[in-house]
Design goal:
With 400 residues, this protein is of the alpha/beta class. The protein folds into two domains: 6-15 and 264-399, Aspartate Aminotransferase, domain 1 (Alpha-Beta Complex), CATH 3.90.1150.10; 18-262, Aspartate Aminotransferase, domain 2, CATH 3.40.640.10. Helices cover 39% and strands 16% of the residues. The chain has helices at 18-30, 39-58, 72-79, 104-107, 130-138, 164-173, 193-196, 246-262, 266-286, 316-325, 345-349, 354-358, 371-399; strands at 6-7, 66-69, 84-86, 89-90, 93-99, 117-120, 146-152, 177-181, 200-204, 215-219, 224-226, 293-295, 306-311, 328-329, 331-332, 361-364. It has a seven-stranded mixed sheet with strand order 2-10-9-8-7-5-6, sandwiched between helices. The chain has a four-stranded antiparallel sheet with strand order 12-13-16-15. A three-stranded antiparallel sheet has the order 4-3-11, with no helix packed on it. Helix 6 (164-173) links the parallel strand 7 and strand 8 (177-181). The longest helix has 29 residues, at 371-399. The protein is globular, with a radius of gyration of 22 Å.
Length: 400
């Protein structure tokens, strides 16, 4: 990202794209409140509406389906409400079913009460347990309101892709609603909200090379309506009060346009990720660390930019510092908002080997990742595994 560092943490936040930066600077220089009727206000409104169209095109919906928020967390809070109207008629959701591996902003349940939230288990590869899901739906009591199911399309830690279309179909059969967290999917795999059959979707700008602090709630079907979360002015068609962040929204739109183009380039990103995977095991073997390496979710369909692996005997917090000192930015299996390395609820849900999970390292590539970045990571990994091997041998020698 800066100097000769290798930035491989795009799932946490991607590097700001030049097109997004230019759009933001132009919006800052333009000024104006998009709710004002004068020329400056109308120009600001044009920027917002153009971005709305660009973001909508990224997921195959109409522009009016898009509500801009301060990020995906706020978008999830707006989406996750029991109070849903269908063509003006209240048809409330009574139970929120969330995948055990969901992002914390979804696991929190939004405006559902804790007793209304039910976890959906995953298989050991991180994919939803459809048999268990069917049992949950079959036992759902209609008197408790409609089922509401929230599932990530792509997991932020493992990159595992969920069968969203199948999940939405089963939920729809029970008269329920489906929220798709597509934050880690857009720009990496084709995403068409209507083809997936979901009702709601959430997005985040900074995961695709846009600015931090702006996201979107997508109401796929105009016949549905969710209860407003932030009340005040009539901005965003009364869905989200408060003056729109025009520069950030403009940057989001520009990033969405570029992310749509990236789909054709993701074979290259996948090849780069796979080249890293191919080199990990030989390095471990060369250092006598046999059977220590685990690639999480490797037997499931995964997005091409993400690699989460664990090395028994390695502590993630120590490894992250070592990588950073070597000029490599990666993260652990747990994307903790406090900046500390915590226990990964995703790996817990997958019943992952605890020793390997403690040393989980996530490598996530993005739009500007290069072979040089991958090579730098591999060189650093070689040094780290060599030190781990030396420490292991020293311990064995001392024990003897």
């Amino acid at each position: 990202m800066t100097g000769n560092r290798a930035y491989l943490d795009h799932n946490a936040t991607s590097v700001l794209r030049p097109a997004a930066r230019e759009a933001m600077i132009a919006a800052l220089e333009s000024g104006g409140n998009p709710s004002s009727v004068h020329g400056e206000g109308r120009n600001a409104r044009r920027l917002v509406e153009r971005a709305r169209t660009e973001v909508a095109a990224l997921v195959g919906v109409e522009a009016e389906s898009v509500t801009f928020t301060s990020g995906a967390t706020e978008a999830a809070h707006l989406a996750l409400t029991p109070h849903i109207r269908n063509q003006g008629v209240l048809q409330p959701a009574g139970v929120l079913y969330v995948l055990e591996t969901e992002h914390p902003c979804v696991l929190a349940g939004g405006r559902f009460e804790q007793e209304q939230i039910v976890a959906i288990p995953v298989l050991n590869n991180g994919v939803i347990d459809l048999d268990a899901f069917d049992q949950l739906l079959n036992h759902h009591e209609e008197t408790n309101g409609r089922p509401y199911v929230a599932v990530q399309l792509v997991n932020s830690e493992t990159g595992v892709i969920q069968p969203i279309a199948e999940i939405a179909k089963r939920t729809r059969f029970k008269g329920g609603y489906t929220l798709c967290d597509a934050v880690q999917a857009v720009g990496r795999i084709p995403v068409d909200a209507k083809s997936l059959g979901v009702d709601f979707m959430i997005l985040s700008a900074h995961k695709i090379g846009g600015p931090q602090g702006v996201g979107a709630f997508i109401n796929v079907h105009s016949i549905l309506d969710v209860e407003t979360a932030i009340r005040g002015g009539s901005q965003e068609t009364n869905k989200r009060a408060g003056t729109e962040n025009v520069p950030a929204i403009a940057g989001f739109g520009a990033a969405a346009v570029e992310a749509a183009k990236d789909i054709d380039n993701y074979d290259n990103i996948t090849a780069l990720r796979d080249s890293i995977i191919e080199q990990l095991n030989p390095i471990c073997l060369a250092n006598g660390l046999t059977d220590n390496l685990v690639v999480f979710g490797q037997d499931a369909e995964r997005v091409g930019n993400t690699l989460l692996f664990g090395l028994s005997g390695l502590k993630a917090e120590t490894a992250l510092i070592a990588f950073d000192l070597d000029g490599v930015a990666v993260s652990s299996g747990s994307a903790c908002s406090s900046g500390k390395v915590g226990k990964s609820h995703v790996l817990e849900a997958m019943n992952a080997d605890q020793a390997a999970a403690r040393g989980a390292i996530r490598v996530s590539l993005g739009w500007n990742s290069t072979q040089e970045d991958a090579d730098k990571f591999i060189r650093s990994f070689e040094r780290i595994t060599k030190r781990l091997s030396d420490m292991t041998k020293a311990k064995l020698s001392g024990a003897a």
